[in-house]
UniProtKB/TrEMBL annotation:
This is Transcriptional regulator, AbiEi antitoxin, Type IV TA system. It comes from Pseudothauera nasutitermitis. InterPro entries: DUF6088.
Length: 202
């Protein structure tokens, strides 16, 4: 018969990379205090990583040794568990669009939930609450464009909208123009001007 820590560890290792282990998942196996103690012990031994309060993940073991799971996988799992929308931060997607050469110092995301920090090994990931308009189109190219332009600010965004238009597919550009009424006035104006100027997309 397995002990409580063994049961928890077996469950954690059965999850996809970045899968969240929560104390509530084991209440049928023992008291909350016993479960918390088992999770703390597994974390001290390095068999689990505590990423946030009441949230643990299993390290990933491969041919090159053991590593923390990918941050994006952990953030995605937390979003599902908490019923949140979580998307890449504007600084990250602005760099991906080629709108800036600035590389973010740390990995960051925007969420419909509360602002918090996630620890993953030595790395700290910022998950920051964002306004609804910033999450309108979710994690798709057009949605990423909204956050990239928002991060750049009014002056640089206006200069960058033509680049965004050339980068997006026709469908994604259409999606972006469709939601501009929900965006801040300066951003809606910049997108609207580009949409109405008749430039050909190269």
């Amino acid at each position: 018969m397995k002990t409580l820590p063994e049961d928890i560890l077996a469950h954690a290792r059965s999850l996809p990379e970045g899968g969240i282990v929560s104390p509530k998942a084991f209440l049928h196996l023992g008291s909350r205090s016993a479960i918390d103690q088992a999770l703390s012990r597994l974390a001290r031994e390095g068999k689990l990583l505590r990423v946030a309060r009441g949230a643990y993940v299993a390290p990933v073991t491969g041919r090159f040794g053991t590593r923390p799971p990918a941050p994006s996988k952990v953030v995605e799992s937390l979003a599902i568990q908490n019923g949140e929308t979580v998307v890449p931060h504007g600084a990250t997607v602005a760099n991906a669009f080629g709108l800036t050469q600035q590389v973010p110092i740390r990995e960051a995301y925007v969420t419909s939930g509360r602002t918090r920090k996630i620890r993953l090994g030595r790395a700290e990931i910022l998950v920051k609450h964002g306004p609804g308009w910033m999450l309108t189109l979710g994690n798709c190219p057009a949605g990423n464009a909204i956050r990239a332009l928002a991060w750049l600010g009014p002056r640089l965004a206006r200069q960058s909208v033509p680049i965004v238009r050339r980068t997006l597919s026709g469908d994604e550009w259409a999606a972006l123009t469709t939601v501009r009424a929900s965006l801040p006035s300066w951003l809606a104006r910049a997108i609207g001007e580009e949409a109405s100027n008749g430039r050909a997309v190269s």
